[in-house]
Amino acid sequence: MRGGKMAMVRLLACFVLYISLGHIPSSLSVILRTTDKIVWANEFEAIELTCLIESISTNNPRIEWKKIKNGVPSYVYFQSKIAGDLEHRAQLREPANILIFNATRSDTAEYRCEVAAIDDQKDFDEILISLAVRVKPVVPRCSVPDAVTVGTSTELRCLENEGFPAPQYRWYHNNEELPHEPKASPRFTNSSYSINPDTGSLKFQRVKKDDAGEYYCQAKNDAGVAQCPGMVMEVYDVDILGIFLKSFGAVVVFFCVSFTICHTCRRGCFNKKGHENSYNWPPQNNGTDYGDTDEGHFRHKSSFII
Ligand SMILES: *[C@@H]1O[C@H](CO)[C@@H](O)[C@H](O)[C@H]1NC(C)=O
Ligand SMILES: *[C@@H]1O[C@H](CO)[C@@H](O)[C@H](O)[C@H]1NC(C)=O
Fold first, then answer.
1. Which atom of ligand 1 is nearest the CA belonging to 102?
2. Domain ranges in the chain?
3. What are 238-252's pLDDT values in tens digits?
4. Side-chain half-sphere CA neighbours of 294 within 13 A
5. What CATH architecture is 24-134?
6. Do you know which InterPro entries this protein is assigned to (predicted)?
7. Residue 19 predicted with pLDDT over 50
8. Residue 211 vs residues 87, 117, 166, 224: alpha-carbon distances, Å
9. Does ligand 1 have an atom closer than 6 angstroms to the CB of 44?
10. What pTM did the predictor assign?
11. Which ligand is nearest to the CA of 185?
12. CATH code for 141-236?
């Protein structure tokens, strides 16, 4: 009699606890767990996404995996078979893990493990895992001007688009790494450069003679590193003779053109006699190439015909 009462009280206590906590006893729930919700893998290596079943009472639960990319879900494990993007590239491992044999960059996505256990009171649970596949950088594209004039500004560029996560860039001058801040090294303390490690830009405010030499850039992320071949940048002194010749050439051409115009004009006046004005202007720029004076690419290439 007493035993029965005690049992009743205990049952009641359990029930009150159950109501107050809003909990279903875990022995009647399917509960999933994972070792990592955010998983990083290297491209072309194996990776396992874990879906551990912490508690379950159903014998043959239904296991499904979905891949969610850009908000669009698709099956990768369905009706006890690997399907979709992972077909022939993965397998299911006890209890509900998925093993990708050879991860590729297109596997970067969210994956959802879903387990339905009909004999459990709480008969469904799911777990979301995000997978990011690291990709090694490829050889970056670098641009280094062949020749710049002392005192001008110039920019060297380096760009790599494959690596994931996005690589960080480093520049080397005559095989020595340029510190991000020139002041950080006595060797480069007189240089006026600045580096943006995120964009790969190496900018010189005012190029100095010492900045001449071979440059290459390196793109690096957690998956690897790649660099472009070295390219030589020459630094010239201001070309005073060149500037003089250019100005002189321009003056000479101006006089030639003026003379030709006057000459033609006078002849035109003689020929006029009742005709319409038919001046025949000579082309004005023939014989002079004023050169390319882009910043940092100053080059002397005047060629004038007198
Ligand atoms: C993974 O796939 C890549 C390209 O599809 C292939 O080159 C590589 O050999 C594979 N690696 C392994 C370990 O199977
Ligand atoms: C930097 O410039 C100063 C002053 O012009 C000079 O004394 C020094 O030797 C230079 N340093 C280097 C590393 O060229």
1. 1
2. 24-134, 141-236
3. 766 667 777 777 777
4. 9
5. Sandwich (2.60)
6. Ig-like_dom, Ig-like_dom_sf, Ig-like_fold, Ig_sub, Ig_sub2, JAM-C
7. no
8. 55, 70, 28, 29
9. yes
10. 0.67
11. 2
12. 2.60.40.10
